[in-house]
Amino acid sequence: VIQIPVQAYQTLTAKPARERKRVVIVGASFAGLWCQRNLYKDFDVTVVDYKRYFEYTPGILRVFVELRHLPRITSALPKLSSKFVCGEAIGINANRRLLQVQTKSDGLQEISYDYLLIGTGSSYAGSIKPSRKEVTSSERLATWTSEFERLRRARTVLIIGGGPVGVELAGEILTKYPEKKVTITDRAEDLCEAFHPNTRSHIKRWLQKRRCNLVLGESIGGKYPDLAIDSKGCTLRSGRRLSADAVYRCMGFNPCAKWVANSLPKECVDSKGFLIVNDHLQLKGFANIFAMGDVMTHASNEIKLGHTAEVNAHLVVDNLQRLELKRPLLSYPYGVVGARCTPRVYCISLGKYDASLGFNWLIVNGPIAAIFKWLLEW
Predict the structure, then answer these.
(1) Does the N-terminal or the C-terminal CB of the chain have fewer CB atoms within 10 Å?
(2) Cβ neighbours of residue 200 closer than 8 Å, sequence gap 6 or more
(3) CB 125 within 8 A of CB 252
């Protein structure tokens, strides 16, 4: 009974739907979902993604060795009070403020927007990130079942790339299957070269203790993207051949921006395919289009992580609301963290029971760091 007058009051004072600005978010991952959670009360929000689930990418490598881990890091997309369109964004008409989406059920759709937020992330070789064919969680599970069996049968493993992804994959394999012979190769002289020296030394000691073969400081033959890599190994520029039963490419990601790049002026996209944003995280020349996460590049040149994608989203939400209020926009990253750079936060796993945790200059190595990462996933 008490709720009836309260609901009546909310109905009378609520902003009419026709007065609510339309926000379309492309990409339902860290940045996109943060924006959805913080905008749906004041805007008419539509979320567009080619898949119907959220997957916690930082925890995905464990699924190579533990299939039951997949449901723990996967969930249905939150509905809240917003719309969801399952389809692949294929372009925009910026003049008419229309997003073009190809759907299986209704074909080509055009979705009107007042503000467009692009958080389509990045793609990665192999199964580490969902493909356009893995629309449902059951389709994703089928892919991982095949990957799990392929690794289980392999006696030797070659990991191409000694960054965080390659290192974490090696850590998972050597923890679950200590008898397998694992090789990591990278053209850099050290593993995880962009990270703190204490992290790098801890990673190297851990891997060498488990007889991981490290082939560092040697480039792969061929010319990118046609490198001398095949399903049974790779050939180095020196002519040396590295062979294995299972080969994994962990050589970095590509921004998922091709779908929109052809609809934009050339100055909006850099030579590597990233969307170029200004200090307010707006697309160059478009005050009502924002980009965040892996898909964009900004002068701060920060490491691309789920954490930094959410920090991007914080500023995008604030600036979108400021545009509505006709207030000055905040600059990134100072406007959201109060400093000239975002905190450098990371946790590189070495299997289930070890890791290296970094927070700016503070480095914690060992089981405590692994517990911290487990808490993040939980």
Answers:
(1) N
(2) 190, 191, 192, 193
(3) no
Please report, to the nearest 10 degrees, the dihedral formed by the alpha carbons of residues 9, 10, 12, 18 taken in order.
180
Q: Report the interhelical angle of 164-176 vs 197-209 (nearest 10°).
A: 30
What digits encode the pLDDT tens for the residues 307-340?
899 999 999 999 999 999 999 999 999 999 999 8
pLDDT at 13 over 60: no
Amino acid at 93: N
* Chain-centre distance for alpha carbon 359: 20
pTM: 0.91
Q: Which two tokens stand for residue 361?
A: 């200059």
For residue 28, count other CB atoms closer than 10 A to its CB: 25
Q: Residue 261 is inside which H or E element, if any?
A: helix 258-261
Q: Quote the pLDDT of residue 237.
A: 96
Residues whose CB falls within 8 Å of the CB of residue 225, separated by 6 or more in sequence, listed in order:
none
Mean predicted lDDT score pLDDT of the chain: 93
User: What mean pLDDT do residues 187-206 have?
Assistant: 97
- What does residue 136 show for φ and ψ, rounded to 5 degrees? -110, 160
State whether the Cα torsion 244-194-148-121 is positive or negative. negative
pLDDT for residue 81: 87
Band of residue 2 on the pLDDT scale cut at 50, 70, 90: very low
Whether residue 12 has pLDDT greater than 70: no
Residue-wise over 48-66: b if at least 16 C-beta within 10 A, else e?
bbbbbbbbebbbbbbbbbe
Q: What whole-number distance in Å separates Cα of residue 136 and Cα of residue 52?
A: 6
Residues 6+ apart with CB under 8 A from 100: 89, 90, 91, 92, 93, 108, 109, 110
Task: Give CA–CA dist 290/369, Å, rounded.
Answer: 34
